[in-house]
Design brief:
single chain, Rossmann fold, alpha/beta, 2 domains
Length: about 220
């Protein structure tokens, strides 16, 4: 690991590609490394994987090997044992022994302040830190107006399937995947929504994520 890394920890490959493209758009890619649990040998991807490896990264903050740290996870659903409150509670439990306390929230996302002047630790619970859902729900709310007709048709196709094998919480995944399958490069990942400017970078939710990422990563290291 290089010295003084700035880490953004996400659940898996699709999230990593998408957030790397977001960081590139915001000109943060040179300073932010988007990582997933499998980047640390022996751990699995997913939300639990993030919770499991987070202490390893938190330990790196004390010796400045890592100077900035944030996590993005899906809220998922309370019915399946998730929900945004549960995600916030789990992260709070993990970071508390390291001196981090949940702070007030002027920048859209969530952050924790340190009792000894380390940089703020960031948390974003997809889609918007207050609703159930996941990254695809964030994308749905940021679809560019030029794409509304195509995306609405994708939703109608999913809604009229003769048989659905996925859980209701995953409807947004099916809708976004269908929509992206009709783009210029079908079969590519979620990052294509950013790369091909299919999302509205002036939308309220995009700007909230932008402000949160900028707050965590743009200021000078202490």
């Amino acid at each position: 690991m290089a010295m003084s890394e700035r880490i953004l920890l996400v659940e898996g490959d699709a999230d990593r590609g998408f957030l790397e493209e977001i960081c590139k758009t915001l000109r943060l890619q040179a300073s932010v490394k988007v990582a997933q649990p499998k980047h640390i040998e022996g751990f699995h991807n997913g939300k639990e994987g993030v919770f499991n490896v987070l202490p390893i990264w938190l330990n790196q903050l004390s010796d400045a090997t890592v100077t900035r740290l944030a996590v993005i996870v899906d809220a998922d659903s309370e019915e399946d044992g998730g929900g945004y409150n549960r995600a916030i509670e789990r992260i709070t439990e993990i970071v508390k022994p390291y001196g981090f306390t949940l702070a007030s929230n002027p920048v859209g996302g969530i952050y924790f302040q340190h009792d000894d002047d380390l940089a703020d630790f960031g948390l974003w619970v997809m889609p918007n830190n207050c609703d159930e859902g996941m990254l695809e729900d964030w994308i749905k709310r940021c679809v560019h107006s030029n794409e509304n007709k195509l995306f609405t048709h994708a939703q109608e196709v999913v809604d009229t399937l003769p048989l659905t094998k996925f859980k209701p919480i995953h409807i947004s995944k099916a809708e976004v995947a269908t929509w992206l399958a009709w783009q210029k490069k079908p079969g590519h990942g979620l990052y294509l929504a950013v790369e091909d400017q299919l999302i509205d970078m002036d939308s309220e939710l995009f700007l909230e994520l932008k402000d949160w990422l900028t707050h965590i990563y743009s200021s000078e290291d202490i």
